Amino acid sequence: MKLEGKYIVILGAGESGVGAACLAKKHGWTVLVSDFGSVKDDFQTELNDLNVEWEAGGHTMNKMLSADLVIKSPGIPDTANVIVELKKLGKKIISEIEFAAHYSKAKFIAITGSNGKTTTTMLTYHILKKAKLNVGLAGNVGKSLARQVAVDDCEWYVLELSSFQLDDMYDFKAHIAVLTNITPDHLDRYNYEMQNYVNAKFRILQNQTENDWFIYNYDDPIIRGEVERKNINAKVAPFSLKNIISQGGYADDKQITINIKDQFTMSIHDLALKGKHNTQNSLASGIAARILEIRKEVVRESLEDFVNVEHRLEFVAKVHGIEFINDSKATNVNSTWFALESMEKPTVWIVGGVDKGNDYAELSELVKSKVKAIICLGVDNQKIVESFTGIVDQIVEAKSALEAVAYGYRLAKDGETVLLSPACASFDLFENYEDRGNQFKEAVRAL
After folding, report:
1. Biggest alpha carbon–alpha carbon distance for the chain
2. Which of 95, 135, 215, 349 is the most exposed place for a label (fewest CB within 10 A)?
3. Going along 47-155, which residue ranges are E strands?
4. Side-chain-facing half-sphere of 35: CA atoms under 13 Å
5. What is the C-alpha to C-alpha distance for residues 271 and 147, in angstroms, rounded to an integer?
6. Domains of the chain from N-terminus onward
7. pLDDT in tens, 168-211
8. Residue (of 415, 338, 420) closest to 377 by Cα position
9. N-to-C CA span, the chain
10. What is the distance between the alpha carbons of residues 438 and 445, in angstroms, rounded to a whole number?
């Protein structure tokens, strides 16, 4: 797909939108940035400095409809009026990643999945950085890819990609594609059809050739079923916690083994990240590193000293013997399943927010064995209350992080844990999951 024309409309004035404006301006496009909501002050300043036209609080339709190319923020659904109208006119709509990749000479390690993608992305970047590769971090983490390509392009990028970003990508190619797992998530954006969501995730393989690699979770039945049905061009390197893998990686309760080029082994107890799901993340990152022929000592050292991302099973504080853990990044049931599975003490669980078609039945057994009380943190908690009444004796409702933490402190005892792992999006009470996690941490520190 050639990116031709003079006039580009960028929908959404967040980090990816403003980064795209920066790159578009550099390559001679006439740019309009349009946001249905408000634009943060620092982004306003940057757009003004770039001499880019921008608008907030709505979209001027006649300006939208004369665009040669449209870049869409991944947060905007296809059902939004502006997208419906643009599609009627056959306008080309792409993601910021697609746009940026067009102007970059870099190679890409692209990572997607319902869960674990941020940790795997950060860990892979950590290994490549330690190996002194010229590498950038982008997608859902770090600075926008477009901004980095505009300012100082790298030789490699590690990208965390959501299904929404992949939906609007066509010519992009991952040199190494990683798929961590697929569980029901964002089904509201996919007509509540699981296969539509699966198809979106598998777009990460598009345009790959026999010179590229696909790293995937062999233990995930949905992924394995799709792999068996598809004609995959890339070399495959699965990882497993159940099977010995001859090209890829596997783990038992003692060590991880990676079979790429030659064999790499490491004690599971030396991994910085604990828990089965994190062993999978470590395997995926380790395989990618060995494909790039990064030295074993560097891989080993990186897997030992990595510090996980904020808001993902993050220890906040111990107050009178009660541990408070911030897992605000758990915005779906499967993420919360992993969090609850890793709890070793009786747990007061803070859950709730904007439900994305969640099936809480998947958590019933874990909740029965691990959770002593539930605090619902959301505007509408009815579904959660109905799901766990009779399983947990105490269920209370809170309308702020401060109130939720106060309840947690009251309901937990010395030697127990208060876990924020919402299984839901945050937009009913908070700006985003970071805001939710930060308010939780502030409230804990105020105890």
Report:
1. 65
2. 135
3. 53-56, 69-72, 93-94, 107-112, 135-139
4. 19
5. 33
6. 7-94 (3.40.50.720), 98-305 (3.40.1190.10), 314-445 (3.90.190.20)
7. 999 999 999 999 999 876 677 777 778 888 999 999 999 999 99
8. 420
9. 56
10. 11
